[in-house]
Fold these 2 entries.
Entry 1:
Amino acid sequence: MADGLLPARAPLIDAFGRQVSYLRLSVTDRCDLRCTYCMAEHMQFLPKKDLLTLDELEQVASAFIARGVRKIRITGGEPLVRKDILALFERLGKQLGHGLDELTLTTNGTLLSQYAGHLKRCGIERVNVSLDSLDPEAFQAITRRGDLHKVLDGVDAALEAGLKVKINTVALKHDNADSIPDMIEWAHSKGMEMTLIEVMPLGDTGEDRIDQYIPLPMIRDQLETRWTLSDLSDQRVNAGPSRYVRISETGGKLGFITPLTNNFCAGCNRVRVTCTGRIYMCLGQDDHVDLRAALRDSAMPEVALNEALDKALFRKPEKHDFAIKRRGDRPALPRHMSVTGG
Ligand code: SAM
Ligand code: SF4
């Protein structure tokens, strides 16, 4: 018995023996940007009543923590556009050191200069900022509306607040492939890690994925004509889908997330919960279980929630099967990354 009152909860172990210790929790499908690889220009957002309330988000997060989840990443859509979001960080921050080891977020950075200090005070140590270009015009084209300077100010505010910042960059064949070395130099000169991501076929964005997609091994080859890249083999560093290198000349770390050219599903330790409470056991598959129904329709929500988690874990698939297709072909998966939570 935990605490002498509640029965100890079984850890979340799937049919392949993998233990889930990492939750990505989406708090909204809305965003102030419309990145061309993520959303359509005219997105239909969900009615607010469909979203998990703050209490429900906390209940879900707490159920995962009770079952062995040690790290939670808050995501979206853009998590910082949700009005009551700081209250969620405050509440979950109190669970740090009590089952939860790390609370973090992925953000586009546009609102970071406003929130960085508060996030740090909630116990957040690290943030991932998604940024695909340092050129104001290219940034505006990729995001279909963004102001680069707000993001750069946000990054500086986060660093000043004492947060560790990692820059996530989706490699795009025409929009940024040539300027990736400059971005790496910029990130490393500020002491930030950077991770490159291959564009994934999630949702119809009105753009041709084949026009966007560039395999990361190609980028790595280009980087190696200029710098010395040494693979970091440390297992802890390489937990999750990123594979890291150190660049001798910049001294910084660079990650590669290559769901298309190489997948690392065998060691997958994560699940995703959408802002409507659906748990997706794999980013690249459509199977899901409805946790909101368990919370809202049951007389014993805690029991129903744990039963739903058991059902979900049992169905976690072995791996994804992404493939890049032309515009007009159905995307591999109909749901957008902004709905699942990246
Ligand atoms: N709005 C926040 C942000 O941009 O960081 C959080 C949500 S966003 C969906 C999370 C991450 O997913 C971002 O790093 C974004 O670049 C990435 N992403 C979105 N759509 C993607 C796609 N189709 N393929 C690869 N990465 C994608
Ligand atoms: Fe918004 Fe993030 Fe998707 Fe860009 S990647 S549209 S910032 S949710």
Note: Residues 22-340 form a domain with the TIM Barrel fold (CATH 3.20.20.70).
Entry 2:
Amino acid sequence: MILRSFLFVPGDSDRKMEKGCASEADALILDLEDSVSNDRQEIARDMVCALLTARPDRQRQQLWVRINPLDTDLALPDLAAVMPGKPDGIILPKTESADDAIKLDHWLAALETREGIELGATKILVVATETSRSLFTLDSFIGATDRLYGLTWGAEDLAAALGATNNKLPDGTYDAPYQLARTLCLAASRAAEVMPVDTVYISFRDQEGLKAEALQARQSGYVGKMAIHPDQVATINRAFTPSDEEVAHARRIVDAFAQNPGLGTIGIDGQMVDMPHLKQAETILALVAAMAGR
Ligand code: COA
Ligand code: MG
């Protein structure tokens, strides 16, 4: 299953939960972390659990929960409070390495057992680049846990961790440390055979900027992107859905090799096509098949 859009919804806002559920986001991230103030943590846990319980059918839209980081004393109570609602997955912020994901895996196993949930059913999406050390441990996610759905990256907390005053260059593109984080997140996801999910675009009124960033992420290999506002969802879904032309071209490449089993390279429309192109074409067809299955 491939999720194109993950929409953040503050866990203590009835209004936004309602709007989120009505949106076309493939998944919601019911947030217990940064978008909820300290004095509203308990209210948010109750509201998130109530929504999860009220929406057991997740065919159209999955419900994930972002808990607080594992180095706070909020993380385990967050999990204990929401697991009765059987979230599809947990977003783990501010990870240092796969050790954090493995610890979460163990906690989830205990809570799944308590709740009578199938062992391993709850997936994990790690926010893998929010601390300075995390940039050096990304390969630790290879083979870490079967629960790992994917890796995503964060530029805001990373900027704070690095002591930066800004994470963008004057032309609006990311400064070098965040480009690096984005690239490492992609490479680590592919190495670990999990889904690379692009970070949020915080200028939520700027559709053109969002579209450009999403298309570029997809071109690089990302399969989805997080959103902070419902108006971002349609743009993201479109950017991460292969176009009819792309699919037709991919099919031509796959068919051409299937019809010429002895050949390692073929000319199509005046372009040399060989094994890496075949692999890319197969990836597009697999993506489309996975999307059709949801
Ligand atoms: N999920 C669901 N609904 C949302 C939403 C979200 N993330 N963001 C906005 N909406 C709703 C608003 O409630 C509003 O609905 P209403 O007019 O019926 O009350 C409507 O969409 C339009 O919102 P708008 O006025 O354009 O934005 P805003 O100023 O109210 O909110 C933010 C701006 C950034 C505060 C808001 O988008 C938000 O809370 N985003 C998520 C933040 C978050 O989770 N951050 C942590 C991860 S980085
Ligand atoms: Mg954050």
Note: The longest helix spans residues 98-115.
